[in-house]
Design brief:
Length: 260
């Protein structure tokens, strides 16, 4: 049995720090991406978010055997100049501090990846759907193993075509594509994925039995006292979509999560 610490979208928040003090408890610590671009309503400045991001990178560099840093949709315009040049929608993107943030990504580029596999579990920022997979890999979309899939997803950042596939955004996120990528998929895209899983004749098989953990979709809500409650998790079949702003423990043997 392995115990993993999962840290969904950061956006300048410091909720990751306390659970990471006890890193020896965990076999891996996995950040699901979106380190910058804080929400206005949480009153986190871009400067504070940048310092927090520096702390995350220092933590990852000090624990390279345990810490995994995934890339999210908010990270890619800073991570890749080419991506930023052809993408047209950058929510809360900081042009003022772009060069500083991009420089931090560039200096630590080897720390970041699109996808990660632990045992039979796939981790991405927003989840992988079969429709997007088929669009990206065409006749090769029936990949032979999860390891092959992870390698293929991580390789997308290395080519212009791959970057454009990562910038596929569905209409529910304000985009123009039929299918959204693994850094942009909305909950509605994932629900569609669940529907086709119920069809035994569906020809799109490669992701069918893969366990997936991802974040991306804010699921917090206002409670009766008018404060924001975080920590809701959407679980359906093999999918676990974790709310932002709080940490989770994942038991890999039972494939169960708990908010911490």
């Amino acid at each position: 049995m392995s115990k993993l610490l999962i840290l969904p979208d950061i956006h300048g928040r410091t909720f990751w720090k306390n659970p990471c003090k006890d890193i020896s408890k965990y076999d891996k610590v996995i950040f699901l991406g979106d380190y910058m671009d804080p929400y206005d309503f949480e009153k986190i400045s871009v400067e504070d978010a940048f310092i927090n991001f520096e702390d995350i990178i220092d933590f990852a560099n000090a624990n390279t055997n345990k810490v995994i840093l995934l890339l999210g949709n908010h990270d890619m315009p800073y991570f890749s100049k080419e991506y930023k040049n052809f993408s047209w929608y950058h929510c809360r993107h900081s042009e003022k501090f772009h060069n500083d943030i991009a420089g931090l990504f560039t200096e630590n580029k080897n720390l970041f990846q699109i996808a990660y596999q632990y045992d039979d579990i796939l981790f991405t920022h927003a989840g992988v759907t079969p429709g997007w997979l088929k669009t990206v890999f065409t006749e090769d979309y029936k990949l032979t193993s999860l390891n092959d899939l992870v390698w293929s997803l991580n390789n997308l950042v290395n080519t212009s075509e791959g970057l454009k596939y990562l910038y596929m955004v569905s209409k529910d996120r304000g985009g123009r594509d039929q299918y959204a990528s693994c850094i942009w998929a909305d909950v509605s895209d994932t629900m569609w994925y669940q529907e086709i899983m119920q069809d035994p004749d569906c020809p799109i098989q490669p992701i069918m039995n893969v366990k997936q953990v991802y974040g991306h979709t804010l699921q917090s809500y206002y409670n009766n006292e008018g404060n924001i409650d975080y920590g809701r998790a959407w679980e359906n079949n093999n999918n676990k979509m974790l709310d932002t702003a709080c940490a989770y423990e994942l038991d890999t043997e039972t494939y169960t999560i708990k908010k911490i």
